[in-house]
Specification:
Layout (H helix, E strand, L loop, with lengths): L12 E5 L6 E2 L2 E2 L3 H15 L3 E5 L14 H11 L6 E2 L6 H8 L6 E3 L15 H5 L2 H6 L5 E4 L10 H4 L6 E4 L1 H10 L1 H4 L6 E5 L4 H10 L6 E4 L1 H10 L15 H18 L3 E2 L3 E5 L5 E5 L11 E2 L1 H12 L3 E5 L12 H11 L4 E5 L1 H9 L9 E2 L4 H8 L4 H8 L2
């Protein structure tokens, strides 16, 4: 196991990796749950008189979301409150950044520029190679210790995540600790009753392997979203392909049809598929149609009410429920029914529950559900999927090796 911030002596100068990757509108970062989660971690560090320099990323080079972190500093400051300033420096390890770091005193918070603007950050390399980079070797001597709180990025072998633990004492932040413990539960914890997994969203190719990897742990799967339609297609229904200029289905079917069909044949008794689907009718209203005998001529944006009721009933009978991905386009209230029905059933049930993925977890706040009614609400996406399948997370491994 790794060391946590509880093991730190007070009054240290800390280099802290967080994940503030956020939606971007008109070049400005928009608030999401990650800011609130990491703000709680930062407050705990400030209570122990630490001086904190933050590293984070935003987007990828070449994409519209690849922007400076200047607007992120303002959002984070709002979450920390009026008594805490978040200074920003438009530099990561150059002279301007080093001067700002050297000026840090206990209680200060400094946000460095987007680490993905550094040439050394993005290449996937071994920790030893990243530890030799100019980026890591320049910053490391300025700090007493390194804290990784970015569980949601822990599957990435990037310099800011794996290089510093080889040169500095390394610790897990509160988000890292809580996420790792909850998301790994499916691998190391036993449950007395049925274990149900709800899979949805648009990235079917990430979720398909999960079914086989957790077959010893999960008793039944409820499928929706893109992955649900693809399995319905494998079951012989006329859905699961692109219409209306969408580009969600065909390439994922072409790449994974053989695996989907094998899973359906092998684990079909554990898979619960939709029996009805919802779409937007000519009047712009939600309409529903039975899957049996259906010929797809429009995009389906949610599971139907019958399917939602079935999935909710299975949840209520479960001792544990894991959710990855939404059952529909919940951002549109007309097509939130399936996702909200399942989340509501989890909230009212005394079961162990983990809701994973930044997008899906947003539905909890959007529709007035109480986060305290869930065992854990994860802000992770890719790392959550890796945890479900039992794959190692390089960002966690280097923290464990640092003990």
């Amino acid at each position: 196991m790794f060391k946590t911030i509880d093991d730190l002596e007070p009054g240290q100068r800390l280099l802290v990796r967080v994940d503030l990757n956020a939606p971007v509108e008109d070049g400005v970062a928009q608030d999401n749950r990650r800011f609130a989660s990491h703000a709680d971690s930062i407050r705990r560090l400030l209570e122990d008189d630490h001086a904190v320099a933050l590293m984070a990323h935003q987007g990828r080079p070449g994409r519209d979301t690849f922007i400076s972190l200047e607007s992120h500093a303002a959002v984070l400051a709002d979450h920390l409150g009026q008594d805490v300033d978040v200074d920003f420096v438009a530099d990561t390890y150059g002279e301007e950044a080093l001067a700002a770091i050297d000026a840090l005193e206990s209680g200060d918070v400094l946000l460095l520029e987007n680490v993905r603007m550094c040439e050394d950050e993005l290449p996937e390399k071994d920790p030893e190679a990243h530890a030799e980079s100019e980026f890591v070797r320049t910053l490391a001597p300025r700090f007493n210790a390194y804290v990784n709180d970015a569980y949601s990025a822990a599957h990435r072998a990037h310099a800011s995540l794996v290089g510093f633990p080889l040169l500095l004492d390394a610790y897990a932040g509160p988000v890292m600790d809580a996420e790792y413990t909850a998301n790994s539960a499916i691998q190391g914890r036993t449950f007395d009753g049925p274990v149900t997994m709800v899979l949805g969203g648009t990235k079917a190719e990430d979720l398909i392997p999960v079914i086989e990897e957790v077959e010893d742990t999960v008793d039944r799967f409820c499928l929706g979203g893109i992955v649900g339609e693809l399995f319905c297609r494998a079951a012989g229904h006329d859905v699961g392909y692109d219409v209306d200029d969408t580009e969600f289905f065909d390439h994922q079917w072409d790449d994974h049809a053989e695996t989907i069909e094998r899973i359906l044949e092998t684990y079909g008794d554990r898979l619960t598929l939709a029996t009805d689907l919802a779409y937007e009718d000519a009047d712009g209203e939600r309409a529903e149609v039975a899957l049996e005998g259906l010929e797809k001529d429009t995009s389906y944006l949610d599971v139907g009410s019958e399917t939602a009721d079935t999935y909710a009933d299975l949840v209520r009978e479960s001792d544990a429920v894991f959710v990855k991905g939404a059952l529909g386009v919940f951002e549109d209230e007309r097509f939130a029914h399936g996702t909200v029905e399942v989340l509501s059933a989890i909230a009212e049930t005394d079961c162990f529950s983990v809701v994973g993925g930044g997008d899906t977890s947003r539905a909890i706040g959007m529709y007035g559900l109480d986060e305290n009614d869930f065992s854990h609400v994860s802000i992770a996406g890719g790392a959550y999927v890796r945890a479900l399948t039992g794959d190692s997370l390089i960002g966690v491994e280097v923290l464990e090796d640092a003990v």
